[in-house]
Amino acid sequence: MPTPYQYIVQKEDGEEIGPFNQETLIELTKQGKITILCNVRNKLLPQWENAGHVAFLKPLLKEKIEAIAHPKLTLWEKIKKKTTRRCDYITRIKEVQNTKFHKAKLYLRILAGLTDIITLGILFILASAATFACVKAKLLTAESAGTDLLAFCVLLYFFYYIIMISLFTQTVGQKMWGIFLMRGEDDIPFYAGRIFFYALFLPFFALITPITAQTNSGHRSWQEYFTDLSLVKMKQFKQSDK
Q: What percent of the chain has pLDDT above 90?
């Protein structure tokens, strides 16, 4: 009878434990002692493999991978954590699922931008209808309604970008076309004030973005340069692509 394979486990802090057989590894995973941040290798082989990629552990860790990708937070936790800093789970997904980032292609930027324009347009129309109703109800005067509506639409524009990116990582357009803003290659968390300035520069440089994003070496728009951000798309890659 052949000897069962023996496995070494490298814990999150670098400590190595084992060897264990397959059944023991499964039991340790069920107990939570082997996580998606652990590495595993066959005792006879030098190559480490993330526990989430080991065939017989992957089903057990799948739910934990999903929990990292979509952490469940209360509304207060979202406000407390994300209105000042962007969600930082992208970096952890990168470590666990072999993920790398590419600069967003031009057509994705354009489609995402058009989607956001349509979304904001709908919000502005609703705001205009609400203003008209307030004038009819004599809650606003006709003379001040235009100025009040303009001020509200400006605030709505900034809140749209700040709230969507701070709380949900992406705007509606970015979500639809699979791109998002990040800072640095390792997705450094950034403050919401940076999103404000990104939204501030966006109307001034949006029309020349197709030119600047294609002609400069970093493939970034001016609003990205001024805020030290990048619009990127997340992709999966194989071990051989590292």
A: 28
Give exposure, 39-78, as e/b (b: 16+ Cβ within 10 Å): bbbeeeeeeebbbbbbeebeebbeebbeebeeeeeeeeee
Q: Which of 69, 92, 122 is the last residue of a domain?
A: 69
Say if 84 falls within a structural domain: no
DSSP structure string for 102-130? EEPPHHHHHHHHHHHHHHHHHHHHHHHHH
Which positions ≥6 away from 110 have C-beta within 8 Å?
210
pTM for the complete prediction?
Answer: 0.57
Angle in degrees, CA 170, 173, 177, rounded to 5: 90
* Structure token digits, residue 138: 């004599």
On whether both 180 and 109 belong to a single domain, the answer is: yes
Which residue is listed with tokens 């962007």? 86
State the residue range of the domain holding 19: 7-69
Query: Which residue from 228, 208, 207, 231 is spatially nearest to 219, judged by alpha carbons?
Result: 231
Is the model more confident about 65 or about 103? 103
Judgement on whether residues 180 and 237 belong to the same structural domain of the protein: yes
Residue 100 has pLDDT above 60, yes or no: no
Across the strands, what pairs with 230?
182
